[in-house]
Automatic annotation (TrEMBL):
Entries under InterPro entries matching the protein: DNA_methylase_N6_adenine_CS (IPR002052), RLMG (IPR017237), RlmG_N (IPR058679), RsmC/RlmG (IPR046977), SAM-dependent_MTases_sf (IPR029063), Small_mtfrase_dom (IPR007848)
Enzyme class: transferase
Protein name per the record: Ribosomal RNA large subunit methyltransferase G
Keyword Transport annotated: no
Primary location: cytoplasm
Pfam family, any one: RLMG_N
Gene: rlmG
Amino acid sequence: MPTLDTPFAHLDLLRQPEQPNEPLQAFDAADEYLLGQVYEQGIAPDTRILLLNDSFGTLACSLASHAQVTGSGDSHLGYLALQKNLARNRLAVANVDFVPANAIAQGPFDLVLIRIPKTLALLEEQLIRLHGRLAPGARVIAAAMVKHLPRAAGDLLERYIGPVRASLAMKKARLLFVTPEPKPVPASPYPTRYRLDVPAIELVNHANLFCREGLDIGTRVFLAHLPRDTCKQRVADLGCGNGVLGIAHALHNPDAELTLVDESYMAVQSAQENWQALLGERSVDIRAGDGLAEQPTGSLDLVLCNPPFHQQQVIGDFLAWRMFQQARTALVPGGALWIVGNRHLGYHAKLKRLFRQVEQMAATPKFVILRALK
C-alpha cells in the first residue's frame, strides 16, 4: 500500500470503496504539490482551513494535527474514506469537521485549498457559496493534475474570487494561486430544471448532478420499460441521481415502498425535492449512502439501477459490479435487479455470475435492459 510522506505527516491511506489488490492510490502528485506549498507558506494551529473536494481525506489527514480543518465535498464515499483514513492513521475524527456539498461551510476561513472537481458546475457552486466566508487576507489555492485542469476552472476562480496565477507544472500537477478581491454578491444558476413528457413531470437538478441539463439517454430508455403492478413491493432506486426512476416507478405503483440511495449529497437533495414536489408526503426513504451497503439482507423485492461507469476521472465497472453484489444481498429470494447499460459493457455476463437467471427485457442499438433474478 503506497504511503504519503510530506512535511506534515507519514500516512497510510485507502480509497473507497476498497478493492482487492487496489491498482490506484488515494493521493496524487497534485495533493503532494499542494501540501508542499502550504508547508512552505506556513500555517499556525489557529489557521482555519477549508478543503474542497478532498476525495479520500488525503489533505485533511495531513493537516488535521496542524490547524483547524473543515472538509467539504459531494461524495459520501469520500466522507467514509475520510473517517476511515483518520482512524487508520490514529488521528482524532473530531479534528476534522465535514460539511456535505449541499450545505454551506460557515467560515470565515484563512486558507481554502481546492481540488478541481470533474464537474465544473460543482466548482462554480462551491465558489459562489464562498462569498462572504473568506477572512481578511485569506489565501486560496487550487490544484489538479494538468490533464484534468481545463481553462474554464481558472476562469471560474477569477470570476468569483479574484486574479489567478498558475504555477509551473511539477510531476504533471499544477497549482492555481487566487488572490481574493471584493466581488458583488453572485447569483447561482443552480439548481437547473427540465421537463419530461412521459411521465409529465419537472425535475430539479443541483449542481453536481449527472446530465443536469436533460435526461440521459439510458434512463430515457429505461423509463419506457419499468416494471408495473409491483403492488406492495419494497423497491430501491440504486444510484438514484435526481430520483427520476424511483419517482416514475412510484407514480405507476401507488402501493410500492420506495428507497432512493445515492453517494452524491447533491443528488440526494435533488431527489428529496423532486419527491416532495411530485409525491408530497408519501412515505419514502431517501438517503446518502454507500449504495445498499447499509440495507438489511433480504429486505427488498426489486432494485432499479442505471449503474455508473466512472468514479471522478477513473473509468471502470468496479462500482457497477459492487452495486450488483449489494443488490443481490439486499434482495429476497426471487427478487429482481433491473438495470440499463451500454451494450458494450457486457453486464449480461457479469450478472450471470451473481444471479440464477438473467433476461434481456428490451434493447436499442446502444442500450440493453436486463432483469436478473436472485
